[in-house]
Amino acid sequence: MSVERALTAFAGLMVLLSVALSVWVHPGFMWLTVFVGANLFQQSFTGFCPASMVMRKVFGLKSERELANKRY
Question: pTM of the predicted model, to two decimals?
Answer without folding.
Answer: 0.84
